[in-house]
Amino acid sequence: MKKRAVSFCMAAIMAAGLLSGCSSQTGSDNTAVSETKEEVTTSAAPVAAETSGNTQKTSITFWHSMGGVNGKAIDALVEKFNKENTSGITVEAQYQGSYDDAINKLKSAQIGNMGADLVQIYDIGTRFMIDSGWVVPMQQLIDEDKWDLSQVEPNIAAYYTVNGTLYSMPFNSSTPILYYNKDIFKKAGITEVPDSLPGIERVGDDLLKKGGAGEVISLGIYGWFFEQFTCKQQANYADSGNGREAAATAVDFDKNGAGVKTLTAWKELSTKGYAPNVGRGGDAGLADFSSGKSAMTLGSTASLKQILNDVNGKFEVGTAYFPKVSDDDKGGVSIGGGSLWALNNNDANKQKAVWEFVKFLVSPESQAFWNSQTGYFPITTAAHNEPVFKDNIAKFPQFQTAIDQLHDSTPQSAGALLSIFPEARQTVETEIENMINNNGTPEEAVKKMADNINKSIADYNLLNK
Question: Of residues 197 and 9, which shows the higher confidence score?
Answer without folding.
Answer: 197
